[in-house]
Design goal:
The structure is a homodimer of 220-residue chains. In chain A, α5 crosses α6 and α6 runs parallel beside α9. The radius of gyration of chain A is 22 Å and the shape is elongated. Chain A has twelve helices and no strands. In chain A, 29% of the residues are buried. Chain A is an all-alpha fold and 220 residues long. Chains A and B meet through α10 and α11 of A and α10 and α11 of B. Chain A binds a DNA duplex (30 and 30 nucleotides) through α5.
DNA sequence: GACCTTTGTTGAACGCTGTCCAATAGTCGG
DNA sequence: CCGACTATTGGACAGCGTTCAACAAAGGTC
């Protein structure tokens, strides 16, 4: 009743449901995708706790129970949204020969271009958008960053040391550097894209050359 | 008295409240502090949404309503916890003359020592422990990081450029580098303290010398 | 075309949450 | 010892996420 009232607001599926059929039967995959899209949009707009199952159900034009039928719980639905968005391409694969200066430049440019194209997505993904700095969400984002670290190592031709914990820690730290740098760019506008680019291009090779050897020594 | 002492520590407060006195009247400031301590412990143990007002009230040996009397809402209480913990000293002020190599080493050592002393606090503060990557929580942590950036600039003797947005962005990015590096150390143990120390000591001066001039140019 | 099985979908019911507020009872000054 | 003050209580409330038995749309079968 209240759900129906709210459901009449907007969106094609909703209107269709209200005017033509009281009950719309969809292919499970389609329904799942539809719910996922609506949820992704709402979770992108406002924080986790302020998006209720009722909201999502209303906008999707379905009953609350159906969400639980498909995803089990609100949390699981949210995780699915995060998983889906973390699977979206960010870097893309490099065409040039890996390990060359050109490969590194290409990787950096693609990275920056992806962020430039979807700044809000990047900010959301990076802002640890988790509902409660949650272990599962953190694990997903962590995995994404590890993969990004692999790509970074490959791009600068250091993939032969990808199993070295210290090297991984070092690259992850550099990822933190880049993350903050891009936030300063697209989020706070205290630095422009070209400076971000120059910094990224110059910094990692410099650090690999000058700092990494320092970490290979056993004692100071 | 002793009952209060127990109340601040363990759930014995519940027993004490049930067996001896049905109603314990405290000084508002003490009560506020006690609630804050209990809340800080619980919010540190598990995520925001899994800590209920009832839990906090039970552990503190008080009624749920009293929490709202003191803090207005669960959210406000949480923000207070975050504010309090972000005020805790992390770096400490430097004794040596700022801008020297020794000042930088001292600052780094104090920083590392603080983390080493309370690793869980550092991880909690850094893990964007916010309930929903929330604007207010983010703002508080942001402010803390800006202050830390100021201290960093002072330690390396670059405080005369503290108003330059590009320099600030650069230092903030370095903060991201350090943050990830320390997580790799105390959180994932993929790198040891001494390597973190050497990295921090060597990296920032190197970047200031080699990368910062690059950012001062207007075009590439 | 009518039946029946399958299954996508509903909506009422439940327990728990955060929040409010009138009533209650410790505490202290006179 | 009394009265005023106020810290504290506990029940009421709306809203949340979740469950589940009942319902209805599709598709195969005859």
């Amino acid at each position: 009743m209240l759900a129906w009232g709210a459901a009449t607001r907007e969106h094609e599926a909703v209107n269709a449901a209200e005017t033509t059929a009281r009950r719309v039967r969809m292919d499970p995959d389609e329904r799942r995708d539809q719910i996922l899209r609506v949820a992704a949009r709402l979770f992108g707009d406002r924080p986790y706790s302020e998006v209720s199952i009722s909201d999502i159900a209303a906008e999707a034009g379905i009953a609350r129970g159906l969400l639980h039928h498909y995803f089990g719980s609100k949390r699981e639905l949210y995780l699915e949204v995060v998983r889906a968005s973390s699977r979206e391409p960010l870097g893309g694969d490099t065409a040039a020969v890996l390990g060359t200066e050109q490969a590194w430049a290409t990787a950096v440019d693609r990275f920056l271009q992806a962020i430039d194209h979807h700044p809000e997505r990047w900010l959301a993904a990076v802002n640890v958008g988790g509902p409660e700095s949650d272990d599962e969400v953190a694990a997903i984002l962590d995995e994404t960053r590890e993969i990004l670290a692999d790509h970074t190592l490959a791009a600068i031709g250091l993939d032969d040391r990808a199993d070295d914990p210290v090297v991984r820690a070092f690259i992850r730290a550099w990822g933190g550097f880049v993350q903050e740098l891009t936030i300063e760019w697209v989020g706070r506008a205290r630095i422009d894209r070209d400076r971000v680019r120059r910094t990224m291009l110059a910094t990692l090779p410099l650090l690999v050359e000058r700092i990494l050897p320092l970490l290979d020594e056993h004692d100071a």
